[in-house]
Amino acid sequence: xxxxxxxxxxxxxxxxxxxxxxxxHATFQTTPTRTPPSRTSPVKMSPVSEKTSPVELDxxxxxxxxxxxxxxxVCLEYFTCWTEQDQINFVKDLIxxxxxxxxxxxxxxxxxxxxxxFISLLPKKGLDHVAENIxxxxxxxxxxxxxxxxxxxxxxxxxxxxxKKLIERKVNTDSLWRGLAERRGWxxxxxxxKPGESHPDxxxxxxxxxxxxxxxxxxxxxxxxxxxxxxxxxxxSENSKGVYCLQYDDSKxxxxxxxxxxxxxxxxxxxxxxxxxxxxxxxxxCLQYDDKVIISGSSDSTVRVWDVETGEMVNTLIHxxxxxxxxxxxxxxxxxxxxxxxxxxxxxxxxxxxxxxINLRRVLVGHRAAVNxxxxxxxxxxxxxxxxxxxxxxxxxxxxxxxxxxxKRGIACLQYHDRLVVSGSSDNTIRLWDIECGQCLRVLEGxxxxxxxxxxxxxxxxxxxxxxxxxxxxxxxxxxxxxxxxTLCTRTLVEHSGRVFRLQFDEFQIVSSSHDxxxxxxxxxxxxxxxxxxxxxxxxxxxxxxx
Length: 547
Hints:
Mean pLDDT is 87; it is low at 7-57 and 532-547. The protein is α+β, with helices and mostly antiparallel strands. The chain is 27% helix and 32% strand. The chain has 13 helices and 28 strands. Helix 10 packs across helix 11 (175-184).
C-alpha cells in the first residue's frame, strides 16, 4: 500500500445540643454560709492505693462512699477558688494519680462533652454558607449519609442545593459527565440560569444524580457487551476507494481519502458537505484540524493548510521528498508547533506563527526506514518507524533521548500521553511502554494482521487492523502485571469489509474508516432509549449505586 511501509459516621445533632446545653448550664453547688479556705492552704492528695484492684473500684463506684459524700463539698470549694490554670494543673495531677482503667472512664465522660456539631451551630451564627461549603466537598455516598444525621444537616444540604453543586463539579472535572450533560440535555439545569429562567428545586437534583449514575453504568455495560447502534457513511469515491484518515467533533467528520480529496460530513444528517477540499495530487494520508485550520499531508509529499470555515487553501509546505505519512500540531504551544514525518525517513519540526507563516525549525534523522507516525507534548516528540523502533526526542531541544526496542516488525501507529506510549505493529501486536525508562509494560495479542491504528484514554485502548477488526482493550487491567493476558480484550467489533485505516473514539462512540470506502460510527450511548428527567417526571431511581 502506498500509505504504509509496514464517610464517616455522623453523631446526632440533637443529642449534641442536649449535651452542650447541659454543660453550659451546669454549676457546682457550694454552701454560701461557709468561708472558702485560703488559696495558700495546701491541698494534699492521697494517691490511689496500688493494692486496690479494678474490680474493687468498679464495685465501689456503683454507690458513693460516705467519706466521698462528706469531703466532696469541701474539695469543690477549694477548686472553685483557684484560677483556671490552677484548676487545669490540679486536674492533670489528679489524672496522673489514677489507674489506666479510670482514665478510660474519664475519657468516656469527656468525649461527648468535647464534640461539637458545628454544621448545626454555624447557621445559628449566620454562617450558613460556611456549613454549605464544608458539606459541598462530600462525595455522593457521604452526602447521602449526611442527610440522615439530623434535620438541621438535611436542611443545610437541601437549601444549599448541594446535589446540584455535586453534579456541576462532576461536569467541570469529568469529560464523561460533561459529554453526557450535553447529549442528554440536563446541562440546561446547571450553573447560572439564563435571564428570566429559574432552575428546579432541590428534589430534582436529588433524583437526577442517581439517574445519571444509572446512565453511566448502562454506557459502560454497552462497551463491555459490544452493544451499539451502527451508522454508516458510504463515501462513494469515483476512482480510488479508501478513507485513510479522519477526525470528528460534535458537528462534523473530516476525512482524507485515497482519491486525493478531503470531504466533510454532517454529524446529524450524515450528509456530505457540498464543499470538497481539492488541491493534493496524491492520496490524503493524514490530517488534523482545530477551530481555525485543517492541515493535511499527502503522498504527493506536500503539507497543505486550509481555512476550516471557507475551505480555502492558505498555505503549502514543500519539504519532504516522499509521502507525508503523519502529522501532529498544537497551535497554542510555543506560538504553535507542528511535527511531520515521511517515507523519506525524516521528521520535520515546524514553528507555527500563523496559518500562513509556518517555518521549518529542525529536521530529525535517525530512523533507518519510513517514519510512519509521530506524536508530541511539551516534553517529548515520539516517532515510530518501519525499522521496528520507537525513538524519543526532546521537544525543546529536538535532541535524541532514547530508543524503545521490542517490536519484531515495522511499527505502523502509536499514541503518547503522560508517561505512556501505546504502539501497533505489523508483527500483529500492541505494546505498552513507559517512555521515561523505555520499558515495555505489556504485549497485547489478538489481531491477525498488521495493527494500523490505535487510540487510548484513561479506561481503554481501541485498535484497528488490516484484518478488518476493531478491538477494545481494558487499559487499567493491561497496566496491572497480575492480570492474565487472555482477559484484556473486552470486545471485538467486526463490520468493516476491508482494512481499518484510522479510528478515533470518546466515552460514547468509535468512528472508524476503512479501505472499504466507508466511515462507521459505533454509538454506545444511544443504542437504547435514554430515560430523561423533566420537571413533570421526576421518578426516583432505586437500587442505584452512588459513586
